[in-house]
Amino acid sequence: MAGKLQLPPLQVLVVFEAAARHGNFTAAGNELGLSQPAVSQRIQLLESQLDAPLFERRHRGVQLTEAGNSLYHIVRSSLNEISEQLERTRYQRSVLRIDTDMGFASYWLMPRLNAIQALIPGVEVQVSTSPNDYNFRDSNAPLTICFGGGHWPGTQSQRLFPEHVVPVCNQQIMQQLGDNPAPASLLGFPLLKLPETRPQRWLTWEDWFRQQRLQASNVTASRTFNAYSLVIQAALEGQGIALGWRPLIAPLIASRQLFICGPEMRSERGYFLISSASKPLSPQQQKVKSWLLDEAWNFHYSDIALPKLI
Fold first, then answer.
1. Domain CATH number, residue 41
2. Would the CA dihedral through 50, 54, 56, 62 be positive or negative?
């Protein structure tokens, strides 16, 4: 264990720094709210402790000796570092960052941010989005919500939602399709979709039609968007039919902005809540993680029925 530091009082060093910077005891006193004799007394105390003169007294002020000049540079640098660290500490905010994709952030996480914030008052909640698959080495977030198969080395992953997908459209297209539309009737409308990925990361229209024993590879009216929020916006505007991931479209179905217009399809993939396997979560992070798992569990009991048009 390091021994006790042999230092003069901090106030004495502050007075020395001001006197050296101004080259004048009176000016230093004015800055610090001290009288000239009080400044002189503290300088004399420091010189006595060091057993060395730090200033040459002159008629119009003072000038640092060689020993005083060496000490000044060290004290000035040290006080600057202390001041900067105090400033950083004063304005430093506790932050919880959650990484996910834009679709999940927009349609599921954002409506719940107030509830998350209420769990951890005084902590800034940051949401960061990326279209890329999760990479443990590149992630700085304690919590990540990512779509995939659930296998990411070096992590703990718990599934929030399985991949349950249904075709959805707005009211105008639903009226044209009629009640209980046949899957083949969807081929008469533009199919809204995300770009293809290799390897495939999520269910596609080809998968859905294949499950219905139909071919959709030659559909020419498809429209591709590079963000899921654009796919859903196009569906809301009646530009075609989209595949809707259940957790994301639930509010739009409940509010009758979108309608389910075909059978559901499922896979073993889904949205997973990911954290490091080696770095324990803080109590605040653990509180949010538990809440997210509970919220996802509750969602499974709020099944969405196919709305009937009036």
1. 1.10.10.10
2. negative
Single residue among 73, 91, 109 that ends a domain in this structure? 91
Tokens 């402790």 found at: 49
- Token reading at 83: 């001041």
Tokens of 307: 């709305």
Consecutive H or E run containing 202: none
Length of the chain: 310
pTM of the model: 0.67
Distance separating alpha carbons of residues 129 and 124, to the nearest angstrom: 16
Residue 113 makes CB contacts below 8 A (sequence gap 6+) with: 125, 127
- For the stretch 246-298, pLDDT in tens is 999 999 999 999 999 999 999 999 999 999 888 889 999 999 999 999 999 88
How far is residue 43 from each of residues 47, 57, 78, measured CA to CA in Å?
A: 6, 12, 18
CATH number at residue 200: 3.40.190.290
Cα dist from 241 to 21, 97, 106, 167, 184, whole Å? 73, 34, 20, 7, 13
Single-letter amino acid code for the residue at 85: Q
CA 271, CA 157: separation in Å to the nearest integer? Answer: 10
- 186 with 120, same domain: the answer is yes
